[in-house]
Recover the amino acids of this structure.
């Protein structure tokens, strides 16, 4: 047996993986020795009293390495069956966020992993970056409900990214009923302040699409997202709506600002695909849950769209109508209820 | 006299009558480790703030605080199976009990109690990768999708939280269908026992209305870099009287019983 892996970590790295703190420094560029020590820590036997954390070591390996080097380290962790599920899930998650062909190739080898949580993370990663060849690696279905939802979303993301004729998400129905009169304010406006910031501050990837400079702030009650449009659908500061009728697209991303506006992270993906004379729109959360759904049709100004909350999603009832075209995007009617429906209830952990 | 007071409080405040188990019925600690311990395997750093000892508690002080201003918790085990075949281990549930005791000791400084614990679970098959939360947005998704029964603040215990270790809204809503922000606190179980208690008290403190401070010695931590994550560690234990007043003013706080 070698030396205790914790003893081989530099003071700076110890701070990065230290237990019992809420804030930690980000890792600087790791040396080969640093990486070896972190990998040893991940594979070491778990000690309850340890003052360092293996899950943080996996994150540090991803954050502190060049992408190609990170892929190798994360692949080693994903291959290791004797370690905890958590570390393997995080390795798959980090591989997905690299959004590279090399990372996708590694993930493709784990689509039939024994652990459903690992499979779910693998599907999420392939959805973030997979190209057409990823479809061949993705199974048709999965026995685990959460993994299956993520799998369907991954297949749909690849199809929309590549513009192929399927596989698409099962058709979501709009929830019945209208938001009440005393609803929350919904607005779409040009960005101000933090919403105007550069795409470089979007962490965790952009689903392997090039985002345009055009962006809007979408506010619903106390929540605000920045809408990032697919650069292939934007021309001269407006929406090239004709292209939406040509093929499926990952049309836009809805990013939430975190760390007091210092970084943004994509929370929802807007999928668009032509159906007959209209375009189907689905707003999908990163776990594959369709939260809002609607359609768009041509009109004199370009495109007219209607989006409502999806049936069964734990979101507020919403009704949004608007127009998109060369002048940009604008809402013509937007209302939302002030509360959610569809929330699930946990069950008692112990017998009464 | 003390026994009579215990029965009185158990009946009036906890709705418990008949034969009473102090740990199960009065504290709400329903789990034991395989060696029979309530708090599992402790490490050298694991001490309770009130006594400074690993496990020493004051039942008298506990009765005083739960019969005064207090709140209830809905403890939600994310990805848990009753036979511990899911994501939550027996070590985790005894860690949560220790964490809640740490939290009780911390809140006792300002005469605020944690009265009832309602243990709930999200089955492994339904939890998916909510077991490992990536960021504050995913924490919000979790509290959007799931809400515990009314009457207490939802505290979701997950295996890891990628950034921040825990998340909660400041001045969280009492309407669990509220559309804005998180309708519960989300807490990582990745830390050790005492720290998990401080972290839980910190996140529930947010929910009860407390903001960050400029001192890492305070339970609500230091956010002098302004990134929205209060820096806390094993020594972040102080609470001020004013913070106690804020906690008592939250809609989920319940008056003396």
């Amino acid at each position: 047996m070698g030396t205790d892996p914790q003893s081989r970590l530099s003071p700076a790295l110890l701070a990065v993986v230290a237990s019992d703190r809420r804030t930690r420094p980000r890792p600087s560029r790791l040396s080969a020795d640093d990486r070896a020590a972190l990998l040893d820590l991940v594979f070491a036997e778990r000690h309850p009293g340890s003052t360092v954390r293996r899950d943080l070591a996996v994150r540090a390996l991803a954050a502190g390495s060049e992408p190609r080097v990170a892929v190798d380290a994360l692949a080693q962790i994903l291959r290791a069956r004797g370690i905890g599920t958590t570390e393997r899930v995080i390795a798959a998650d980090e591989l997905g966020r690299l959004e590279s062909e090399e990372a996708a190739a590694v993930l493709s080898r784990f689509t039939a992993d024994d652990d459903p949580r690992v499979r779910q993370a693998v599907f999420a990663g392939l959805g973030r970056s997979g190209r057409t060849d990823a479809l061949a690696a993705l199974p048709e279905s999965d026995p685990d409900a959460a993994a299956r939802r993520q799998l369907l979303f991954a297949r749909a993301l690849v199809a929309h990214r590549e513009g192929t004729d399927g596989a698409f998400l099962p058709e979501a129905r709009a929830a019945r009923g209208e938001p009440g009169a005393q609803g929350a304010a919904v607005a779409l406006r040009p960005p101000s302040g933090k919403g105007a910031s550069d795409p470089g501050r979007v962490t965790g990837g952009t689903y392997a699409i090039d985002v345009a400079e055009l962006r809007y702030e979408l506010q619903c009650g106390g929540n605000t997202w920045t809408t990032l449009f697919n650069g292939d659908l934007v021309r001269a500061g407006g929406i090239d709506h004709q292209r939406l009728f040509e093929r499926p697209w990952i049309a836009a991303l809805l990013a939430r600002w975190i760390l007091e506006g210092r970084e943004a992270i994509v929370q929802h993906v807007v999928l668009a695909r032509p159906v007959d004379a209209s375009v189907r729109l689905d707003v999908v959360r990163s776990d594959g849950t369709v939260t809002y759904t609607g359609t768009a049709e041509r009109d004199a100004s370009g495109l007219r769209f209607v989006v409502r909350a999806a049936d069964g999603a734990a979101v507020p009832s919403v009704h949004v109508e608007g127009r998109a075209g060369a002048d940009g995007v604008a809402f013509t009617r937007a209302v939302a209820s002030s509360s959610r429906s569809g929330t699930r209830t946990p069950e008692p952990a112990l017998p009464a | 006299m003390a026994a009579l007071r215990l029965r009185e409080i158990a009946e009036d405040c906890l709705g418990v009558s008949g034969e009473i188990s102090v740990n199960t019925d009065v504290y709400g600690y329903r789990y034991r480790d395989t060696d029979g311990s309530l708090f599992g395997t402790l490490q050298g750093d694991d001490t309770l703030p009130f006594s400074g000892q690993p496990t020493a508690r004051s039942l008298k002080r506990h009765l005083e605080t739960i019969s005064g201003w207090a709140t209830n918790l809905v403890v939600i085990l994310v990805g848990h199976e009753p036979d511990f075949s899911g994501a939550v281990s027996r070590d985790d549930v005894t860690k949560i009990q220790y964490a809640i005791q740490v939290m009780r000791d911390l809140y006792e400084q300002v005469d605020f109690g944690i009265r009832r614990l309602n243990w709930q679970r999200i089955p492994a098959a339904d939890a998916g990768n909510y077991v490992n939360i990536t960021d504050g947005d995913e924490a919000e998704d979790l509290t959007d999708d799931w809400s515990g029964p009314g009457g207490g603040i939802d505290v979701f215990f997950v295996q890891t939280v990628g950034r921040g270790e825990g998340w909660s809204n400041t001045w969280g809503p009492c309407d669990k269908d509220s559309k804005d922000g998180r309708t519960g606190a989300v807490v990582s179980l990745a830390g050790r026992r005492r720290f998990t208690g401080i972290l839980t008290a910190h996140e529930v403190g947010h929910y009860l209305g407390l903001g960050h401070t400029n001192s890492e010695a305070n339970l609500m931590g230091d956010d002098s870099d302004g990134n929205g994550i209060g820096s806390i560690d094993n020594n972040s234990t102080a609470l001020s009287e004013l913070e106690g007043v804020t906690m008592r003013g939250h809609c989920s706080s319940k008056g003396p019983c």
